[in-house]
Description:
Oligomer: single chain
Pfam families: PIG-L
Radius of gyration: 17 Å
Organism: Candidatus Nealsonbacteria bacterium RIFCSPLOWO2_01_FULL_43_32
Strand content: 15-25%
Order of helices and strands: EHEHEHEHEEHHE
CATH class: Alpha Beta
Number of strands: 7
GO molecular function: hydrolase activity, acting on carbon-nitrogen (but not peptide) bonds, in linear amides
Low-confidence stretches: none
Protein name: GlcNAc-PI de-N-acetylase
Amino acid sequence: MSQKFLVFSAHPDDADFGCSGTVAQLVKEGNEVVYCIVSNGEKGTHKVKVSRQAIISLREKEQRAAAGILGVKKVVFLNEKDGEVENTKALRKKIVKVIRQCRPDVVLSFDPVNLVFDNFRRYHRDHRQAAEAVFDAIFPAAGSDAFFKELKIKPHTIKEAWFFASHSPNLWIDISKTINKKIEALLAHASQISSEKELRKKISGWAKETGQEKHLKYAEKFRKLELL
């Protein structure tokens, strides 16, 4: 039976690095996937003469193109300021609204407990703050009518959460048939890619290393939590 998956990402391209092979596989199996991007990605360039709005528009366009490659038909943008994401009540309200509107079975996001700080890019503050906001929105807020009644949307409780970039994974997804889709989706973020050759090498290397943990050719891994 098909399910609905909702993927939260701090910036345009984060989800494509973290779980796009899985997303492509889920779509291939007949599931529906929706993307929700928390920040607008406006600081994702070193071109100081490019306007803020031009960068935002470009990164949104790139994210929609990447999603299309994977078979994701809907992308929601929350438009928080890049580099300034905070786990506030206002952000949690936005996230709860998306969860209640989409009514997913499973939510995917960065792992909120990743606080080991052994990688600057992975533990970007926006990643940590967005992950905590998603976690707090999932439970208890999204599933309880005691929170955000003003939204006037029926509460919704998800079945599971899959957290990527986790140091304590318990779920491995075989992406051997979708590794090329993952790479092509990442290449759609052209403003963020300096070398196609290096990207292909890096992504295939990561996925191969992860796959070897479970005797798979290529894989992505997650920490899965069940709520129901």
